[in-house]
Each structure stands twice: as C-alpha cells, then as structure tokens.
Amino acid sequence: MATIDTSLVAKLPLFAGFGPDELDAILQEARSIRVPKNGKVFEQGEDAHSFFVLLHGHVRASKVTPAGEQVVVRYVSPGETLGVAMAIGLQRYPATATAVDDSIVLAWPAAAWPRLVERYPTLATNTLRTVGGRLQETHSRVIEMSTQQVEQRVAHALLRLAKQSGRKVENGVQIDFPISRQDIAQMTGTTLHTVSRLLSGWEQRGLIESGRQKIVLREPHQLVVLAEQTPEAKEP
Length: 236
Prior knowledge:
The protein has helices spanning 20-27, 112-119, 121-147, 150-165, 181-188, 192-204, 220-228, and strands at residues 31-35, 40-42, 50-56, 59-64, 70-76, 81-82, 96-99, 103-109, 166-169, 172-175, 208-211, 214-217. The protein is 38% helix and 24% strand. It is of the alpha+beta class. The strands form three sheets. A four-stranded antiparallel sheet has the order 1-8-3-6, with no helix packed on it. The chain has a four-stranded antiparallel sheet with strand order 2-7-4-5. The protein has a four-stranded antiparallel sheet with strand order 9-10-12-11. Helix 4 packs across helix 5 (181-188). It has seven helices and twelve strands. Residues 14-100 form the Cyclic nucleotide-binding domain. Keywords: DNA-binding, Transcription, Transcription regulation. It comes from Rhodopseudomonas telluris. Residues 148-221 form the HTH crp-type domain.
C-alpha cells in the first residue's frame, strides 16, 4: 500500500491536535480511493464498512424517503469527513454519497474505529465536533423549511453552498462544483419548476448567472437581503 503523505491531512479538522508520528500511525490503516464523477462512495442502507475523509473533489449526500423521493442532505467539500456512521452508533449508512466531480477519498475500515479512538481520544472529539456542526446546519434547514417561503429557502441554499465551496471569479462567486436546478430543488423541498422560475428571475435581475450545472452569485449581498427578508418586507 502506498504511503500517504501526512502533509495532505495535517491541517484537516479531523486531525487537529495530532503530531506527525500520530498522523503516520493513523494513516497506516487508510487507503486512497479514486471515485469518478457520478460514482458512489457508499449507498444508503449499505453496511457501514468504512469511514472516509474527502481529499479532492465534492460529494453529494442524499437520502431516498419511504415514499421514494430523493432529498439532497448536504454537499461535502475537501477536508471533510463522511460515512462516520459507527461514530453515531449506526450499523448502516443513512444516506448515499455520490461524487459530483472526480474525487479522491481516504478510507479506513470501520473495524479500525474503536481501536483508533481508544488510542487517540482526540479523534472522537474532533468527529463529534464535526457531527455537531452538521446537526446545527440541519436544525437551521428544518427551521427554514418550516417558516420560510421558497424564495428565502433557495437564497439560503445558494449562500450556504457559496460559503462552503465558493470560488471568486471575475463576475462574482461561483459555486465550485457541478450543481443542477434539480439538486437545488431537492435541497429546498420544492419543485424543479419553481427553482427554474426563481433562478431565471434572479438571472434577469443580474443577481446570478447560471448555465449547465453551474451557478455564479453576481450579487451575494442582494441574495442575503432576499434570504433574510420578513413577510412584511416583501413587495406586494
């Protein structure tokens, strides 16, 4: 198995507080896996055989509801953990992880988790911190879904993605991975038709630019205004 360069992971949140020797020991049990665009890292309901860190690319986590509807849970960016089902007491993956562009993950066998956290308790602490942050994000999205209009929810979703994976370009901030209008609809609990209508309207107003699986936020501050507006503030 090829040796993994510790410099690739030393600054990642999962490994905060570890020295070079400790990182070497942890990485001994990891393997690097290339996942092509649209390839699956793991699937919902599958035995949680491994846990992962994304080194390169982007991954979409999605769930299929009992009614057969697909919901986009979140997007995973480089440096983030995924598939840590065993850390929260799950035996199976609760969602499907799909590469949205060519990606590279580090994978550890699930059987290594109890041994690693016993030897390196900080690993469990760092993972819990990550899970806690995602739980807060989920709470925010639940509140948005329960209390906000579709326009606000879509604006929040675009801003969240830009904050997570935005890249400064000449005409604004581009969400730096392929994302479709259907993906946004599945993130915000609405329909493709509604998202298409909203984005087309925003494009006409110069707030965004959109192409095939590409979105640029031209006026992020105006989207913040849309996201935070109250019902009373909306135009009649």
